Amino acid sequence: MWARIANAVLGIWLMAAPAVLGYGGAARTNDRIVGPIAAAFATIAIWEVTRSVRFVNVALGGWLLLAPWILGHAPAATVNSLVVGALLIGFALVRGTVEQRFGGGWSALLPSHTVPEEHPAGGEPR
Amino acid sequence: MAESDAPPGWSYNPSTWGQRLPIVGLALVGFLIAGYLALYQWGIFSGVWEPFFGDGSRVILNSSISRILPIPDAALGALGYLADAVTGVIGRRGRWRTMPWIVILFGLAVGPLGAVSILLVILQPVLFGEFCTLCLASAVISVAMIGPAMDEFLASLQWVKRERARGRSAWRVFWGLDDERRGAPRTAAQG
């Protein structure tokens, strides 16, 4: 729960950061796009049945670690991008507690899987 | 209490009123916010409430993107929230099994509404350099509805697939037709 909240706050911070830290250009546009997406997936991942979408923020964090060199960020935007990217990845890798069982989860819908009658143990639905 | 009517392999029933009513409540709040913004866009209200971003709401709600469709975008949002509330409230606590069509419609209504909201949240600052407080509030609500709606959606999809694997018509299972176990928990019928 806390890890999802932390990433949602980081996403909202990315939306505000260009104004607060005073940077513009491609870095500003990038952070205003990545921020809402990160906050949205962090929020959706709060619920156990959709916990797996937390991994989207691993990808977004990875992009934030690369973006300063691809987009040519200013120093303040670079530091912000690296710190936020690393934190996003770290929090997204926290699985948290999953107490409910979901009958095999989302992967049970794949053609190669069968929907089980009983799911043996708890686990993050995938 | 929820144990007996939980889907096979589930630890709880995702279709109980306790599970669904909070989502319906969120949808109704979203409907009120989007309805208010739509009334402004139609010119029925001359001003719009904006505590943080100065001219932000006026710029966003009168932007070219907001008028890209025949009706203002907030009116479309209000219709989306209404669809969420209606599909969220129809059916009883066994509806993941007895009415998969309404549960799947519910999931399909909730998902895209959240996606469009996030798209609009991105477009506001990127294209117009402004934010709109109530638009952001509406986006938060529509995203918060996705997670809690997806468990029921998953249970219905699993149900249709499982019954199809047993040789029943997926079409009839989808519409909740000829369920011989209607009213009786599936797990109890297996013995």
Overview of the molecule:
The complex is a heterodimer of chains A (126) and B (191). Chain A is built from 4 helices and no strands. By secondary structure, chain A is mainly alpha-helical. Chain A has 2 domains: 94 residues; 26 residues, no CATH class. The two termini of chain A are 18 Å apart. The mean pLDDT of chain A is 92. Chain B is mainly α and 191 residues long. Chain B has 9 helices and no strands. Chain B is elongated, with a radius of gyration of 20 Å. The C terminus of chain B is likely disordered. The chains are: A mainly alpha (126), B mainly alpha (191). At the A-B interface, helix 2 of A face helix 5, helix 6 and helix 7 of B.
Provide keyphrases for this structure.
heterodimer, A: 126 residues, mainly alpha, 2 domains, B: 191 residues, de novo design (two linked rop proteins), 64% helix, disordered C terminus
Q: What does the secondary structure layout of this molecule look like, with pairings?
A:
The complex is a heterodimer of chains A (126) and B (191).
Chain A: H1 2-21, H2 25-44, H3 56-71, H4 75-92
Helix pairs in contact in A: 1-2, 1-4, 2-3, 2-4, 3-4
Chain B: H1 17-41, H2 56-61, H3 73-89, H4 95-98, H5 100-128, H6 133-144, H7 146-165, H8 170-174, H9 186-190
Helix pairs in contact in B: 1-3, 1-6, 3-5, 5-6, 5-7
Distance between the termini of chain B: 19 Å
Q: Structural class per helix/strand content of chain B?
A: mainly alpha
Which spans of chain B of ≥5 residues are poorly predicted at pLDDT below 50? 183-191
Major β-sheet of chain A, in short? none
Distance between the termini of chain A: 18 Å
Q: Could you say how many structural domains of chain A there are in total? A: 2
**What is the overall number of helices of chain B?**
9
The low-confidence runs of chain A, each spanning 5 or more residues with pLDDT under 50, are: none
Please, how many helices of chain A?
Answer: 4
